[in-house]
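Q: Sequence in, structure out?
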Amino acid sequence: MGFFEEIGKEKQAKYQDRILSWNNSVMDFEEGRFSARGTVEITADDWGVKIIFTSESFDNPVRLSGVWSILSVGERSISSAYTNWYLCLID
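A: Exactly. Output:
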């Protein structure tokens, strides 16, 4: 197993349950100059996460994804390096 695969497995073990607990939650989305509030549908597997973000601000749902090794996860947020999307949980 390579270095990035090891990092990915560690992040999956540490964060997968937290991320999945946000499924069907309202979150703020940012990517570059775009920002919106909407709901998320989140799935996760050994590769990483797949998120469908639905908002009245966009005509169609936005599909986001990230491999475990490039995800950053906070207490109430998730972001993906290189693709620069960010989601933050709303109360």
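The longest strand covers residues 34-44.
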